[in-house]
Amino acid sequence: MTAPFRHPAPEAAPVRDAPPWSGPGFAEFVAIVALMMAVTAISIDNLLPAFPVIQARFGITDPNSLQLLVYVYMIGFGLAQIVYGPLSDALGRRPVLLVSLAIYVAGCFLAMLAPSFGWLLAARVIQGLGAAGGRVLSTAIVRDRFAGREMASVMSLIMMVFLIVPMIAPAIGGMMLSLGSWHYVFVSMLVLAAILVAWFTARMPETLHPEHRRPLSLRATGDALATTIRNRTAIGYATALGLLTGCIMGYVGSAQQVFDTGLYHLGNLFPLAFGAVAGAMGAATLVNARAVRRLGMRPLSHAGLIAFVTVGLAQVGIGLAYHGHPPLALFLGVLALNQFLISFAMPNFNAMALQPLGAIAGTASSMLGFYTTILGAFCGFLIGQSFDGTTLPVGVGYAGLGALVLVVVAWTEHGRLFRGGVSG
């Protein structure tokens, strides 16, 4: 990676006498920001192997109810994002992130003490409220320092590291379970949070220049919200990103049932199957990080989206041909291919949504993150709760939401797909 490390981003407001960058080098910068996002992923995926144990512990009769452990976390995660952006634009990135991590740690401890399933769900909401800080501020910190294709490339590298986590998270969860209790799964979350706090505090300086800070007021927040909503590119690509997030959340919510208890009964091999699919996403984001500089965000993401919809339709056809129970190798292959293709769209959609909003990067990231997460959680919930012992709900969800995304992107681009530009 040879990209220059800039301060500030080209599209940001001009800065007088900007100080030289005193923080970590490029690779360490990417690693720290990726770890901020990884807290979110591990908090979802390493709990999946514990579902059967939690079901037995709390006497849950409907296996689909266990999916709420994923979706209530995402609700808290989505709701809190609307707060962290304006706070970080006014107070800076560092203090807001540290407060959010304190909330996350509190949620972990409450989950470990849960005497009931309802208590555990409430603790998961609190975890989500805390983890949202990492999601918002990781994007804002990248936007503080990069723009255009450089931002898309950096986000792809961060997403690649971020997506490695789902490959190993269920295995970590299984290992924690082998120690004797599902409570140990939350210990692994606490360890990750502690590493992030220490590393970020020691190495990452404040990235928001004082001249870019915005007043913390309802009027300023309202103005930023109006600017975001009125921008066709921002709201269009945020909607597309939210719908694609719904595909991912629908799969994640039902993955344990599909691969283990409800369909393929893989048992201890469940983390291996889950990791193989996540590995396809990680590989795609690495390819995207390199290709986006040469091809541009729009041509690459639009081509990936069309291919994603095509494979989604094939996924439905295969499911119907095998009455909802295709051979495991075939199902894994098609699913991994679709996860590979979706990864050419999501990082670029995220970058394009934020691209015109550099002057309000933190607030815009917060608002768009809130919108995409809540939309994704809702769509994912509909897919996950439709699980009927077959692969068809996942396939129909991918194909249906993918087609809707294509319509949204066409509207956003006034019907002109694949068009590039200086920064797109």
Automatic annotation (TrEMBL):
Q: Which residues form the Major facilitator superfamily (MFS) profile domain?
A: 29-414
| Organism expressing this protein natively | Methylobacterium durans
Its membrane topology: Multi-pass membrane protein
Look up keyword Transmembrane helix and say if it applies: yes
Could you name the Gene Ontology cellular component terms for this entry? plasma membrane
Transmembrane feature ranges: 26-44, 64-84, 96-115, 154-176, 182-202, 234-252, 272-291, 303-322, 328-345, 357-383, 395-412
A GO molecular function held by the record:
xenobiotic transmembrane transporter activity
Know the name of this protein?
A: Bcr/CflA family efflux transporter
Could you confirm whether the keyword Transcription regulation appears in this record?
no
Sorted keywords for this record are: Cell inner membrane, Cell membrane, Membrane, Transmembrane, Transmembrane helix, Transport
Can you tell which superkingdom this protein's organism belongs to?
Answer: Bacteria
| Family (UniProt) | Belongs to the major facilitator superfamily. Bcr/CmlA family.
Q: Which Gene Ontology BP annotations are present?
A: xenobiotic detoxification by transmembrane export across the plasma membrane
Q: Where in the cell is it found?
A: Cell inner membrane; Cell membrane
Main location per UniProt? membrane
